[in-house]
Design a protein that fits this description.
32% of the residues lie in helices and 32% in strands. It is an alpha+beta fold and 66 residues long. The chain has a four-stranded antiparallel sheet, covered by helices on one side.
């Protein structure tokens, strides 16, 4: 599992949009996005940089958590 921080999410619609941005990402098994904590836990064998790029391009700047 990989935890990432996501900025700019203000409502459940933002969560849905972020989820949609990750749909179809090869190797991604699940994405649990948390609005209150402004983060997501991703699992699977996927390209992290691609996931971060997809979220950022959708308007939700993302980075890997420390």
């Amino acid at each position: 599992m990989t935890e990432i921080n996501i900025s700019n999410m203000k409502c459940n619609g933002c969560v849905a949009n972020a989820q949609k941005a990750l749909e179809g990402l090869p190797g991604l098994e699940s994405a649990e996005i948390n609005l209150q904590q402004a983060n997501a836990v991703l699992s699977g064998d996927f390209d992290l940089n691609e996931a971060l790029t997809r979220l950022t391009d959708a308007g939700y700047p993302a980075e890997k958590s420390d």
